[in-house]
Amino acid sequence: MKLKLTCLLTLFMAFAIQISFAQEKSVSGTITAATDGLPLPGVNVIVKGTTRGVQSDFDGNYTIRVSANETLVFSFVGMQTVERSVGVSNTLNVAMDEDATALQEVVVEAFRTSTQEKSNIASTTITASTIEARPNASFAQTLQGQVAGLNITTGNGQPGGNSTINLRGVGSINGSTEPLFIIDGVPVDEDNFRSLNPNDIESLSVLKDAGATSIYGNRGANGVVLIKTRRGSFNSGLKISYTGTTSMSTLQDHDYDLMNSREQLQLEKDFGSGFGATLSDAELAIRAQQVNTDWLDVFFGRSLTQSHTLNLASGGENLNSFTSFGYHDQEGILKRASTLKRFNFRNNTSGRSNNQKFNYATSFSLNYSESNEPNAIGTGGINRNFVIGANQSVPYISPASYIFGNGANIPVIFANTPLFLLDLRDQQVRRDDEIKIIANVNASYKFTEDLTFNTSFGGDFTDEQLLLVESPTSFNAQLFAETGNNTPGFQDNQSTRTVALNFTNSLTYNKTFAEKHTIEASVFTEYFKAHLRGFGFRQLGFDPATFSPGDGSSFIADNANNDFFIDTANANIQNAGLFSYFGFLDYDYDSKYGISGTLRRDASYRFSQSNKWGTFWSVAGRWNISNEAFMDGSVFQELKLRGSYGTSGNQNIIDAVGQGAYFVGADLTEDFFNTGGQYGGVNGLTVGQIGNNDLKWETITQANIGLDFALFSNRLRGSIDVYKKNTTDLFIQTPISPALNGGVTAISANVGELENRGVDLELHYQLFKKTTDDGLNLRLNLVGNYNKQEIINLGPGGDIPFGLRVGGPLAEIYAAPYAGVNPATGNLLFLDINGNITEDINENDQRATGKNVYPDYQGSFGFDMDYKSFFFTTQFNYAVGVDRYDFDLNGFLDPTAIGQFRHSRDILRAWSQPGDVTDIPSLTATNLDDQQFSDRDLREADYLRLRFIQFGYNLPSSVVEKIGFTHLRAFVSGENLVTFTKWRGFDAEGLAASQNGYPTPKTYSFGIEFGF
Amino acid sequence: MKNIYKIILAVITITMVGCNDAIDITQPGRLDAANAFRSVTDLRSGLLGAYNFLDITPEIGLTASFTDEVFRGRDNGGQNTSEQNFNLNSNNGYVFQIWANNYAAIGLANRIIAAAPSIDRTEAPIEYDNVLGQAYAIRAFSHFQILTYFSTDYTDDSALAGLLLLSPTEDIFASVPRSTNGEFYTAIEADLALAEDLITTDEGVTFMGDDFITALRARMAAYRGQYALADGYAASLLSSYPIANQSQYFSMFDDTDFTEIIFSLERAVGDDYDDQGTAGGGWAGSLFAFINPNLGGGPFMEISRSTYNIMDGTSDVRLLRNVNLNESLIDPTYETNPNYLNDDVLLVFKYPGSNNQPLMNDLKVFRSAEMLLIRAEAAADANQLIAAATFIKQLRDARFGSDQPLPNYTNQQQAFGDILDERRLELLFEGHRYVDLKRIGDRGNRQIDRDARECAILAGCTLSNSSDLFTLPIPISEITANPAAVQNPG
């Protein structure tokens, strides 16, 4: 698919080459791909008729000793082989064209690689070129829209903030729904990529169907993402390359039509509530003239990001290494409260024995990040959520009204919300310091040509230090202080350390019989263990004289007079583990037919007392139609039909985010007691948990049929997959008798079933193809997914009123239709459950709407173009079928908030006298409360967004070489520049019905890349 | 390359041997059921846990808001609207809490009782007996609470009560039918008899002792209409628990005087109910106010005008104790003032708080005043009207701090009516009136009695005492999971 990924083959191709050195002159050069001019690493350069050869390095460079009369053969999978006579020149640059069939592309699969032609699975691979040099701190955000069926939603503008990642729909109700992420063989926390450097990524493969994921057993249910980081190559000189970007981010636009100071004051005056109501016309005019604050500009603003990555790669005959240093410093658009700064170091080393039977590779990355991350975003805390201050604060209050250190004297009225928050910004610290190490060592030994033993051991280590400090003079500390406490405030220190270790061993047999029959068989064991250690304390009380956030000098000790300064401590130990053994079998006949199967036995610590072992399996097959004789001469270069069916499991039956995710629901099968339950001042004993001793994993059974095709001389390439995924043994609440169970009304049990079915489509069309170096390349891309969910069964508990129903989608919205404003009374009108127009509805009038926040259609389209030395890329993302409540709009139209918060000009259209026909109810409507049961605030959040656009220039190699570089290019790019949507808020994207959330920004970047 | 084979062999061995340590993991800090009860000390811990489940604030909250004790307060944001409007559904919060709290206590008591035989009594025989006896007492009390709120007719032994649970639950998914009142009474009496035998130490008024057992027997007999028995039990307690004078009465609700207290549930700083928030959660004071019993303390339920008006202007200590007169806004024109919700703010003061913690007080379960009123009821039932009047006078003398006239009852109905009126004031905000109106409302010709101004904005001023609403519905969560449990009528 993408040629660059083929450098992954480096390691494998190395086996095939015998290297020797003659005594002739040295010839060197750069090998590039003709299509995009990018260097090709791992190309075999062999002197024709000999066994002498080298491989091109990471930057496509090679050096070989030859004599002038010899011929060099350049070969590379997926490329047409090129032969060149050496001649007198010492430099020989080669541009390689794609192979007409292009079927030899590497396909990364679970624990192995295959080729496009021989792969039986549904997967998509993304290469470095679409990930690197993007300004997003987390690569997950960059992936958006690039893989059919992979729905990535980032509803949070925090730099490096977590994205929700779902593959082919949402596969669980209470359990985890995110794919398993494996970086260089190490399973990692799928919610925390903020510390990782996206520029280290070489390729990223998304495994979708059962044929691909079943081998991951009880972790594979939601799909698997395999990430490989860059490596060096053997026999290459030192290559240094640098990538740097500088970006500026701003808030995306909204369409709420908000009032200015004068309008807001006038509204208050007319309504008779708030500050405006106390002013005469003249005073009002003066105030409006003096103060007109747009608080969005106070709390949000332009933010800068800089990112630098320096790579060093080199390789000797039997040892190579890749080293990278990264530095990333990002401000969130929420000024001062939200930042991310990180340092990355990576070293990947590969080595082999002289006879090349023994190979090993290590990957090591050390990452350190510091983030300031506000924690009450999206809540209603007027003294905690900065975004309330930005969105909803009245414009007639000036930031100058806040005096540092004077927080205790801010009058507690809603209109002063922005002042509370300015104080919070100055007087609260919330900082996360994180050390993340991901390391792996992988070694293999070939007993014979056919039999290889492989072992891999790796770990994901995370140490997070959270500091939360509220200063003694802050508004919050002062407001909530006990009477008589003059030195309030608190400091939370929380240390959480997790390590997850993974150990895999395998034996693989690979043999071709009678030229046409190829068999590959492997057996594996996998051991996984994770540990969490956490502790922390909350200190109450600081002496302002020595106060410094995070430091203990100012801590006030408990005293005999009161209990104001009693500290609390906490500590936590948790362990998790998995063990599995599994096998893989693959048979190919003449690259025409193939079948493979997997079988895995899995044990999870979560079910050790109930259903310890689970079995998951899959079968997959293909028919390479284009390789049949009857297809000779057709327009198809490739036509392959694939099919797979199988099961995988989800042992993360309780969804959790972050470091704790491995450990939640550790022993739900067991009954136990808690100490506590104090009575009469003495600790007692109480029932802690009622166990469910039938517990087991959720099972996803997936059927997939796919077609891969390439036609019209490979100009049109793509694939289409149809799938049906059924999750059975859904882990959902089942009612139990509270009388029999000490007041507990429900216990989670494996009872329900959920179905996701849909289509993945990927199309690439080469509209113009370069024939000369100065020609035009233009490729059109389309990535799409259609997914439909349906709840098939909810167990004996049945439908959950106003929540879930059999036949409905997940997270279905229940509401009564809003029918406008009653012209006679100004009250809201609704349709009750019987369809009658009424002003009075209640909970029972809510009905299933079939709508939810998950898109039916989503994906992207765009083009990649290059002309001469210029390149130009666009990616438009789209989502269709998304419905969300716009609670921000609700706030801007809320008449009960007049005098407290800011409003939209829409409210000026409010009904005022009988006969008025308008869409905004009377400001004194008596049934405003009933709208909570209605769809009045429900909005379509479908969108089309210019997610990414990039324009750049590659300095021609003739010029570059003169100034001592191997390549040099510069570009400008933009993220989220334009969005077309009916959604009126800042960010159409997002899964929550959020009010006052932290929107993702739009970002402009400038970047430069060079190597020498 | 021989070493390679050795390494590979070692790797495979480690993996196979190591596998169990990855999947058979016991999390630290877990106390499983098998190890929970291994000594008499453990039994005591379990007993404290069972006490900790006992909470009568849902009973107090339901009674106050459903009957005529409170009316929505100035700072009400919708709290208790359903109860005030006589909506009592099977998903009502109070209903669920009464059911769940008592069954939680029963469940833990059953675990203690079941574990006891396997524990060596000789370790500490007196303590062993005391703990086991109190476990029986808790089980008896909670079963009686269930019967009290979920049975249609206390005097009918064949009417349904709740689930009679006398052993720990084996099958969490089981469905168990309701037992009859007769079966409940038999089991409760058996538990109380065992408790009486076993308990030999008086651990104070916050633990169940012999006097608690007698008081429960007195109340149960009165509810059943077995007044001769009830009178005997009540009389025996009154000899050791006198009626408090005015200052003792006032201090009793500050938790500083215990003259009248036979049994109360302790509420202390740092216990499980600490900081549980609004509307119950173990703190009776937070049934009425958010922060404290003062004007700025967020009163969301206030004493009803109909109750206040009875005491207004009298020297009855119960006026001072029930209403925070220093802080209240009392609007004499409330009947005509359109803004009376904001101008007439009558703050509940019965649970002002203790130990410097506003709104947190011990929950008075049995007091001698109730025993005296049981004696009055028994006398009225026996048509001894002067005796009944004498008991009422005795109580009024104490509360008014001066000699009060002897009431003159010309018939039983008058006597019961007056006793009910007295119970209304004496046991205000203690969770009695809902049950009292159901029990003897008709005998005394009394009903829910709301002020005209208040009931004008509520669904109704009163309700027939025979209404189904005087029996709580079985919670929807029970009915859903336990189809064998029949729902109450209505």
Walkthrough of the structure:
The complex is a heterodimer of chains A (1012) and B (490). Chain A has 1012 residues and is mainly beta. In chain A, strand 37 (818-821) and strand 38 (828-831) form a beta hairpin. Chain A is globular, with a radius of gyration of 31 Å. Chain B is 49% helix and 4% strand. Chain B has 20 helices and 7 strands. Chain B has helices spanning 2-23, 33-36, 40-53, 57-66, 81-84, 93-115, 125-150, 181-198, 210-224, 227-238, 246-252, 305-311, 317-322, 340-343, 368-381, 385-400, 412-426, 433-444, 452-455, 476-481, and strands spanning 31-32, 70-72, 261-265, 301-303, 353-354, 357-358, 363-367. In chain B, the strands form 3 sheets. Chain B has a two-stranded antiparallel sheet with strand order 2-4. Chain B has a two-stranded antiparallel sheet with strand order 3-7. In chain B, strands 5-6 form a two-stranded antiparallel sheet. The longest helix of chain B is centred in the N-terminal third of the chain and has 26 residues, at 125-150. Chain B is globular. Chains A and B meet through strand 25, strand 26, strand 30 and strand 31 of A and helix 1, strand 1, helix 3, helix 6 and helix 20 of B.
Coarse structural class of chain A: mainly beta
What gap, in angstroms, lies between the N and C termini of chain A?
Answer: 28 Å
Relative helix content of chain A = under 10%
Shape of chain A: globular
Strand residue content of chain B = under 5%
Describe the oligomeric state of these chains in a short phrase.
Answer: heterodimer
Radius of gyration of chain B: 26 Å
With helices defined by DSSP (H or I, 4 residues minimum), what is the helix count of chain B?
A: 20
* Biggest interchain interface, per-side counts: A-B, 60 and 66 residues
Mean pLDDT of chain A: 88
Low-confidence stretches of chain A: 1-23
Strand order across the biggest sheet of chain B?
2-4
How much is the radius of gyration of chain A in Å?
A: 31 Å
Share of helix of chain B, binned: 40-55%
